[in-house]
Each structure stands twice: as structure tokens, then as C-alpha cells.
Amino acid sequence: MGRIIFECAVNAAEMFLAVGFLTKYLTSKFSGAKAYLCFIAGWFGAFAVVSAINYITIFESYGTYIYVAVYFIYAFFCLNGSIAQKFWMSVITQIIITMTTVLTLVAVGCFFNCDPKLIITQFGLMRVFAIVISKLVTLVTLAVYMAILRYRRTDETGNEERLWYALIIVPFLSVISMTELMKIVLIHPDIK
Q1: Distance of CA 57 to the CA centre of its chain
Q2: What is the pLDDT of residues 59-118, one digit of tens each?
Q3: What is the pLDDT of residues 132-151, one digit of tens each?
Q4: Which H or E run includes 89?
Q5: What span, in angstroms and rounded, lies between the C-alpha atoms of 16 and 192?
Q6: Which of 43, 85, 146, 162 is the one with CA 20 to 30 A from 122?
Q7: CA 141 to CA 177: how far, in whole Å?
């Protein structure tokens, strides 16, 4: 029972971060109670989907595409922006979550000399530790991206050119972060 509660809490936190990131970036079409209701509906919908997929399978490699679809549906009905922006941010959100999860899993596995497959398949202290670290890294990563993208909100001229710079910077920084972390592991195997 404790495992189910823990996994559900993690799924709820992760989807809160994902839907919150999308909402902060694209902004809600609505205001007041309607905006909150849309956020809660998007959050609960994403939570239900991720929980169902995690119940069905151990590792959701193809399920990732379903998450992108759920984010896009939420963005399409509840958030501002063009269809391309909504789709792009849905993809970017899942890339951030997937990258941080995989990197953290590999890093924890290397650091504690554990098989990442065992961390995924067996519930124990190592899994709890890896998940907590992963979600903290995800939170920090999303916060950094929001800080980078925040200047878009201060541009009152409607200059969409700045938006494209932001959309290029986010994946570029993601790739740099991943490569640098992997370089550290490969160059210094003693510190993993």
C-alpha cells in the first residue's frame, strides 16, 4: 500500500510540474476560477494517464508520446499561443522530464553501483532515493527554463522573434546539460 501511495504522489507531483510549466509559459486563456478549474482538469487528466501507464507497464518508453498528446490537448483547449507553440512546448516539457529522469536514474545507478533496471523494477530505498532526486532535478530544470523564457512576458511590443530565440535556447541548453553530465561520468569514472 505504501508503494502505491508513494508512486501516486510522485506522479501527481510530476504532472503538477509539467502542467504548471506549460501554463506558466503559454498562459491561460481564462481568468479566475475557470483558469484554476482548467489547470486542475489538465493536472488530473495528466496524472490519471501517467498513473494508468505506470500501472500497465514497468518502463513507459512509448507512453511518453501519450503524455505529449495529453499536454497538447490541455494546451489546445486551455492555453494561449499558436498550435505550433502549444505542440512545441508539449514536446519540450516531456523532453525535460524524460531527460532528467533518465540521467538521474543512470547517475544514481552509477554512483551507488546499482543496476538501473533494478531501480526501475524493484521498490526499495534506492528507487525512492532515485525518484526524489529525479523530481528535484526536474523542478530545478523547469525553474531554470522558466527563468530563461520569462523575458518573453516582459516584451510588450509583441515581438515574436524573441519567442523563437527562446524556443531554440531551451532544447540547446538541454542537450548541453546532458552532454556535460555524461562527460563528467565518462572522464571521471571514479566519481561517477
Answers
A1: 19
A2: 666 677 888 899 999 999 999 999 988 988 888 888 888 888 878 878 888 888 887 777
A3: 888 888 888 888 777 776 66
A4: helix 83-111
A5: 31
A6: 43
A7: 10
Say which amino acid occupies 36: Y
E strand or H helix at 22, and its extent? helix 2-26
The x, y and z cell numbers of residue 117, run together, are: 533496471
CA-based R_g, the chain, Å = 18
Q: CA–CA separation, 144 vs 160, rounded Å?
A: 21
Q: What are phi and psi of 160, to 5 degrees?
A: -75, -15
User: Which amino acid is located at 91 in the chain?
Assistant: V
Distance CA 178, CA 192 (A): 14
Q: Measure the CA angle with vertex 174, ends 161 and 120; round to 5°.
A: 145
Position 124, amino acid? G
pTM over 0.70: yes
